[in-house]
Amino acid sequence: DIQMTQSPSSLSASVGDKVTITCQASQDISTCLNWYQQKPGKAPNLLIYAASNVQPGVPSRFSGGGSGTDFTFTISSLQPEDLATYYCQQCEDLPYTFGQGTKLEIK
Amino acid sequence: EVQLVESGGGLVQPGGSLRLSCAASGFTFSSYEMNWVRQAPVKGLEWLSYISSSGSTIYYAEFAKGRFTISRDNAKNALYLQMSGLRAEDTAVYYCAKVGPATFGSWGQGTLVTVSS
Fold this sequence. Notes:
Chain A has no helices and eleven strands.
């Protein structure tokens, strides 16, 4: 199975800060990497697909990048509504696997 | 607007069975692949099963093989997950998810399955 290592597991930042989350795959997954946001008590929501494509309707402060084994997810200017847990997920091979999640708190 | 509504969750005893349903609307259900994903309490996300648009291709996570069965009825715009031999570790919120543009492009609200005596 492809292991996805996401870091940090949690982070606290202030409104307006730039926030970056990383995700590392245990083998080359090209750009088959998606990012999801899960707000407390809610279902996950797709933000970024194929490593860097922003899902329509998602604010432009969210972006993604990377290829191969190393990926990043960035919020350019943190907003209070970004309080959530963020997950990466590889789609290169079955079983589809997720990172362990990054819990983002607002200072 | 894509809508996915899961149902069928509840409390079940260890060893018991349960059938989850996912009612789809707002898109041409028969054209899209679907998945089930679960999330144990205070845990991360775990892919469970995939089914192609026609239902002819199915994949399972290792833990689901032999106990869980995914199926769909395109005439009823419905996705199903038949679960048997349930264990305490199967306690989770179960989500159905539509493929496109990502593996899990749209999600339902989830249905909670609790396995306990």
